[in-house]
TrEMBL record:
Residues 310-346 form the PAS domain. It is found in: Cell membrane; Membrane. It comes from Actinoplanes philippinensis. Keywords: ATP-binding, Kinase, Membrane, Nucleotide-binding, Phosphoprotein, Transferase, Transmembrane, Transmembrane helix, Two-component regulatory system. This is Sensor-like histidine kinase SenX3. One of its GO terms (cellular component) is plasma membrane. PANTHER family: SENSOR HISTIDINE KINASE GLRK, TWO-COMPONENT HISTIDINE KINASE. The keyword Membrane applies. GO terms for biological process: osmosensory signaling via phosphorelay pathway. It is a multi-pass membrane protein. GO terms for molecular function: ATP binding; phosphorelay response regulator activity; phosphorelay sensor kinase activity; protein kinase activator activity. SMART domains: HATPase_c (SM00387), HisKA (SM00388). It catalyses: ATP + protein L-histidine = ADP + protein N-phospho-L-histidine. InterPro entries: BphY/WalK/GraS-like (IPR050351), HATPase_C_sf (IPR036890), HATPase_dom (IPR003594), His_kinase_dom (IPR005467), HisK_dim/P_dom (IPR003661), HisK_dim/P_sf (IPR036097), PAS (IPR000014), PAS-like_dom_sf (IPR035965).
């Protein structure tokens, strides 16, 4: 039958524990009559901890007590004392296991290959757990001694010596047993130096504890522990502490060394145990601190190398992009740009780090009108606006023919400092020219088709008159309806072409008069058709600087779109007003109580040939025409939900009137 993996550690710990009990049971000097070198306690604690997750934990607990009692019996102790020592060993091991489970669980799970003791917090946790175990083992041992010997009194110094002994046993000998396997993995390049440290330490300990035993110069041995802790791996440092703590204890038990001159046996025992514990703590503290530092440095180097590799990879990717990429700081100056950005902007020598990306680089509106710095997308993002992708005409000495570049600007947060802006540039010249050529072709086709359509409508009217009263006249009506739909569509194409290509003739327009005229025409239309008349609420309307023909078309399309999207049976309501906007613009708002626009399509409604679901009276170009008219005047347009209820709010900006006539029309605020 195959033995479980837990058997070899159990056998190893059992052998070490039994050897330690037999070898050290006689290392005593007078009262308190307890062994001064007692590695068995530390080995027992680690033995039970290593077996905590296996089925051997209860047999191991019994074996600890049995081996301890048997060792004392073999070395001449009475059976009661032997049983008392066995019970104390079991209680100490169990207490250590409980403390480790709560305070230092990594010591239990280190069997998976990880270091069980690798940082200063681990050392302090181990010291705490060792103290708990020593206290748990000392209480029954001291209580039993007092009960067995009626003439014996409790001694604080003797109790302290026992506590220190068991604590050092766990800290030094238990840790040495736990890290024994790590010795094989230690850096072999340090073997010569390690042998030298052990040789020098052996000579120094002989000199202090044997040759010059009367002199209290034990402190000169501390530098040797420091040397070992700084230069040797942690498992070797633990081995060094275990070997020379044993040497110091053996010399003291034999009556040699600076501590042997102390007449009080209990005080002597406490001092030598305290010395051993201090050396162990100093050595382990320095070694673990060095290990933590080396680990952090290694991680830092790995992280630095990883960051360098990622930066190199990212730089390669960014530089190989066909789209331009630039990052600007909070002042609008370039921090980073890739070669494609320089090519697209046509200003490779000028556009470098530390230079502001402004309109003096040759940025214009797509129609060629000037573009101020405040209208640039990245400047607006820096001002806190939510900016949609924007087409910009780039024309400078490097690109004399002009290039249409789409700016995509977004905010980039970098920790707690001021945010930056990342801008992606995409050359859309070919796409826009293709689109413009297509729309121009569509406009020409629409114009050419109007003549035959007029002929069809004329002959359809003649047929309707001739077939009046006959059944075929219904088919003629279908022809007339189809022709009417075709005329609406062709007129829309012509209107879009005019809005796109027509020459702007801006002048000061009295918005109040224009809106009033459109409202009257819609009221007359509703009365003539018998439909419910819409209710208009008109607020303040300042004059604007715009092409009057295109402005009328813009307002009529937006108002008609609101009326067309009303729910059946709902009385139409529209509110029209304006308010000042940055950069010398006016924002005009048209609010309605229509069905509204789904949130996911509020940008799509301004694209060509977009129709509301179920619409049969729209050619899909009305809002695209509105967007084109607004953009040609240097403004923007957006559709949002009505903040005061159901419906939609159409908001667009136009230049405010600048003439003396406009100032005279503008009411006092």
């Amino acid at each position: 039958m195959r033995l479980p993996m837990a058997v070899p550690p159990v056998v190893g710990y059992a052998a070490l524990h039994l050897i330690a009990v037999l070898a050290c049971a006689r290392t005593t000097f007078g009262d308190p009559g307890e062994p001064m070198i007692w590695p068995a306690f530390g080995i027992a604690a680690m033995w039970l901890t290593a077996s905590a997750e296996s089925r051997w934990r209860w047999p191991v607990t019994g074996a600890i007590g049995l081996f301890t009692a048997a060792g004392f019996v073999v070395t001449g102790a009475g059976p009661v004392v032997a049983v008392l020592e066995g019970v104390s060993a079991m209680l100490g091991a169990v207490a250590f296991l409980v403390a480790v489970t709560r305070r230092l669980p990594g010591l239990r799970t280190a069997a998976d290959g990880r270091r069980p003791l690798s940082s200063l917090p681990d050392l302090w946790g181990l010291l705490f757990c060792a103290g708990v175990a020593a206290l748990a083992a000392s209480v029954p041992r001291i209580a039993g001694d007092l009960l067995l010997d009626a003439g014996r009194t409790f001694s604080v110094t003797g109790a302290a010596a026992l506590l220190l002994r068991d604590t050092v046993a766990v800290l030094v000998f238990g840790t040495a047993a736990r890290l024994f396997g790590s010795l094989l993995e230690a850096d072999r390049s340090r073997i010569p130096e390690g042998l030298a440290i052990f040789a020098v330490s052996a000579g120094a300990y002989w000199a202090v504890f044997s040759s010059q035993a009367e002199l209290p110069i034990g402190f000169v041995l501390i530098p040797l522990t420091v040397w070992a802790a700084i230069r040797l791996p942690s498992p070797v440092v633990v081995l060094h502490a275990a070997v020379f703590d044993c040497a110091a204890l053996l010399w003291t038990v034999g009556g040699d060394g600076p501590y042997a001159v102390v007449a009080d046996v209990e005080l002597r025992a406490m001092l030598i145990q305290l010395y051993a514990g201090i050396l162990a703590c100093v050595g382990l503290s320095l070694a673990l601190s060095r290990d933590e530092r080396d680990t952090l440095i290694r991680r830092l180097r790995d992280s630095e190398q990883e960051a360098t590799d990622k930066a190199t990879m990212m730089t390669t990717v960014v530089n190989s992009m066909t789209e331009g990429l630039a990052i600007l700081d909070h002042t609008g100056r370039l921090v980073l740009r890739n070669p494609a950005a320089g090519r697209l902007l046509g200003t490779v020598p000028a556009v470098t780090g530390g230079v502001a990306l402004a309109s003096d680089h040759g940025f214009f509106q797509p129609d060629g009108s000037p573009l101020s710095d405040g209208d640039l997308p990245h400047v607006r993002v820096l001002a806190g606006e939510d900016v949609q992708p924007m087409d910009v005409l780039v024309r400078n000495s490097a690109v004399p023919e002009g290039r249409i570049v789409r700016f995509n600007a977004a905010r980039l947060s970098l920790g707690d400092g001021p945010y930056h802006v990342v801008v992606v540039f995409h050359d859309v010249t070919a796409d826009r020219r293709h689109r413009d050529e297509l729309m121009s072709f569509a406009g020409r086709v629409a114009h050419d088709l109007l003549n035959p359509l007029t002929t069809i409508e004329g002959w359809a009217e003649v047929l309707e008159q001739e077939l009046a009263g006959y059944r075929p006249a219904e088919r003629v009506e279908r022809i007339q309806r189809a022709a009417a739909r075709m005329r609406t569509f062709l007129n829309g194409l012509l209107a879009y072409t005019a809005a796109r290509d027509g020459k702007l003739m801006p002048t000061t327009v009295n918005m109040a008069l224009l809106v009033g005229d459109i409202i009257n025409s819609r009221l007359d239309q509703a009365e003539s058709t018998g439909a419910a008349p819409p209710y208009f609420e008109v607020g303040r309307l300042d004059p604007v600087e715009a092409d009057p023909v295109l402005l009328r078309q813009l307002l009529e399309n937006l108002i008609d779109n609101s009326l067309r999207t009303m729910a059946p049976g709902v009385a139409p309501y529209l509110a029209i007003s304006c308010q000042p906007a940055p950069n010398g613009l006016l924002r005009i708002d048209i609010l309605d109580n229509s069905l509204g626009i789904p949130p996911g399509t509020r940008h799509e409604v301004f694209t060509n040939f977009h129709r509301e679901k179920g619409s049969t009276t729209s050619n899909g170009l009305e809002l695209a025409i509105c967007k084109r008219i607004v953009e040609r005047h240097g403004g923007t347009i957006e559709a949002t939900a009505n903040p005061y209820g159901a419906g939609t709010r159409m908001s667009f900006t136009l230049p405010a009137g600048r003439s003396a006539y406009a100032r005279a029309l503008a009411p006092a605020r």
